[in-house]
């Protein structure tokens, strides 16, 4: 349980924009153990999304090593990376990235299409269960344009859960949600964490960070603080302590 | 990824963009249909010209006077006078491969009957001319060698002449018409032949013994042409050689002298004409080919746009685990579905168009298999190539780059 699932060693990521070089990450090193619930915090532009993309094997560092489950990701082929993203990682994008004109159900099914061991009915079962978990069971046939921002966010979360990954990476997954729904999502995350899934959750709300057991602070592409949260708040209790939903 | 999954993903993607898929298909449909219809028109007209010519008698041989060098001056063929009755008799007597021969001495004139008149062509021929040209008498009789011997004032009328001189429908047989002030008794009528493939009315004609024209109207001993029939289609080359030899003798040409006549077989004429209509086919095919190229460019454009527009989708699919090859196959299958469906509809539309043209305009059409195969292949391959190529480019991007694409 206490093995290192993620190891970051002096990770740098630079973007070359014509003659200028934007240094989004300037040497980030930290480890994440299996079963941890880590939040990454930092102000806008501090490099949170850039870091999470690297963790999700969507992007490659300019310099430094990234080990996932002890394997140096830099040495993997494109196909091996694709398989890794499909089976091990559930990614929630800051911008949702749902397929337009496609029902919620089909959007959630998408990762399963790239897993040949599943039959059509298994695929549908899993997708429906994932949507039930984010409380969207009654919106299976709705397309993204027929859903609110928060509902789209939840479809994106369902899509990240559907393949039962060992690790969930979420970029501001509660950014567009009201307090109650945010807490519901965090409660879901805590349940998933209890099942043994490792979670890395980007947010800039300290309120949300309180539900995790560790917080990494980024500033200007560098880790400035890495604290373990001694008394983790239970999202379920927080939900119960909210005033009952009024019928306004 | 399994084939079923692949087809399912592709079909769902097409369903999401029905209009775009249809527009892409439209380019292919029009390109394929245009080529098939155009080529069908070209081939059809070629075939019909050929069959009409064969109906005229494929073992027919024409002998025309021709310009040879006469004191260094070339004289126009028609005005050159070299064919006489001596030539006709010599051919009749000595050519083994010739079954029939007839001179032609023709003139233009105003045919008059009662108050009606009609400008037409008077052809002086021998009775054997009917066999050579496959002419048949409908009513009455044809003239005989005896009529030729006496330069009898008798004639056989073509349908157009009858229609204009005898509009009330009465039988012209036995009546006397006048042509260039010569009275001619109508002894027969011709079975109509209709228009020739050159657009000439073959029924606008009066036939009479050649002696009548030569002696009573033109006062000449020369003929405009001589028509002959080879014994069979296969012997027309030998017949031509024989005739050439005989005429060189009767014209007293020395070895090395140029012929002052031309001998033409129907076969040569058929060849010349089919090469002209082949040119027409080539021309139509070229036009169709251009429309195919334009259609192809349309396909390229839409395919290219549709793939680049979907770069984000590609990025998303890769980020949830699609490999480069999955993306490629998806777009390939989409392109194949669009191209093949469009191609099939195009073939159906092209064949139908050809039939509609035949039914409404009366143009003969022949749908050739090669045009179907060729146009189908060109469109399908264009579609597949230009669906595949940008997809391949996109599948090589990193997922995050593709997602960030605008
Ligand atoms: N593709 C790119 N090209 C150029 N610069 C980039 C690119 N991606 C990110 N950056 C730059 O890297 C820095 C970090 O960006 P990043 O998106 O990681 O910030 P963030 O912490 O997620 O911010 P936010 O809270 O607003 O989402 C920014 O200065 C940004 O402009
Ligand atoms: Mg961000």
TrEMBL record, chain B:
InterPro entries xref list: ABC3_permease_C, MacB_PCD, Macrolide_Exporter_MacB
Membrane-traversing stretches: 21-42, 279-306, 327-351, 371-389
All residue ranges annotated as the ABC3 transporter permease C-terminal domain in the record: 286-399
GO (cellular component) term, any one: plasma membrane
MF (Gene Ontology): transmembrane transporter activity
Start and end residues of each MacB-like periplasmic core domain: 22-245
Cell compartments where the protein resides: Cell membrane
Membrane topology qualifier: Multi-pass membrane protein
Family, similarity comment: Belongs to the ABC-4 integral membrane protein family.
Protein name: FtsX-like permease family protein
